[in-house]
Amino acid sequence: MSEARFTTERDSFGRLLADREVWRQASTIPAAGELTARWLEGNSQYQPGVFAPGFDEETAAIAGELARLNRNGLFTKESQPGVQAGGLAQRAYVTAFCGPEAATALLALSARTGLVTVVHDPGEASSVSIPVTVQDDDVATLLGSSEGPVGEDQLRDWAAETNETLALVLADAWYVEIFDPVWGRNDVLLAAVLEALQAA
Q1: Alpha-carbon distance 106 to 199, whole Å?
Q2: What does the angle CA 31 – CA 95 – CA 68 come to, to the nearest 5 degrees?
Q3: What phi and psi values does residue 6 have, to the nearest 5 degrees?
Q4: CB-hemisphere CA count at 13 Å for 129?
Q5: Do the Cβ atoms of 176 and 118 come closer than 8 Å?
Q6: Mean pLDDT score of the chain
Q7: What is the pLDDT of residue 147?
Q8: CA within 20 to 30 Å of 121's CA: 91, 96, 101, 168, which one?
């Protein structure tokens, strides 16, 4: 295969394989955070677990703030802005893998603000149901369940999407879910999370 062809080849989801190769070298949460920040800034077309070359439209408004979180101790996995329009109500939230220092700082954030942080110990399996998206009176998105790759299937998926070393790091990482309990509010959460991380 020629080098030029490799640099433009895509997987079945449209993700650029050349950008995937960089993930093969990521072996720490800061490295995964940096690569995620590049994707959020439009400088990559591969993000593990996202089966499209880019993010969805609602993420565009918060992508810059998410990139900063990824450069300050988090490897973010999911997020959404706060929205309240028509039949849609969303609480702003972000979920992420991190080390114990960041987890402690974010738990303290929950203790001193109106924001809520759910912290999962490494390897913890938990199932709590916290509604964060309601569409036409039906709950569409829940937080509270541990997303750490603690099972064989999850480890295999992370290893395939990144590499075995990072999969094992994530299996031993803390997993945090931080959300704003105020439906539709979109100007508090991400700034407060960044401030907590930088102060830690």
Answers
A1: 10
A2: 50
A3: -60, -40
A4: 3
A5: yes
A6: 90
A7: 55
A8: 91
H-type alpha helices, 24-83: 29-40, 63-70
**Token pair of 116 as six digits:** 């809520």
As a whole number of Å, the CA-based R_g of the chain is: 17
* 164-171 vs 152-161: helix crossing angle, rounded to 10: 140
* Nearest Cα residue to 197 out of 75, 64, 101: 101
| Phi, psi at 72, each rounded to 5° | -130, 35
How long is the chain? 200
183: nearest Cα among 91, 67, 63: 91
- Bridging pattern class, strands 130-135 and 93-98: unpaired
* Rounded Cα–Cα distance for residues 175 and 163 (Å): 19
- Longest pairwise C-alpha distance within the chain: 56
pLDDT in tens, 103-146: 999 999 998 999 999 998 887 767 777 878 888 888 888 787 65
55-109 tens-digit pLDDT: 999 999 999 999 999 999 999 999 999 999 999 999 999 999 999 999 999 999 9
Nearest to 79 by CA among 58, 49, 99: 58
**Which among 34, 180, 191, 196 has a CA at the least distance from the CA of 101?**
196
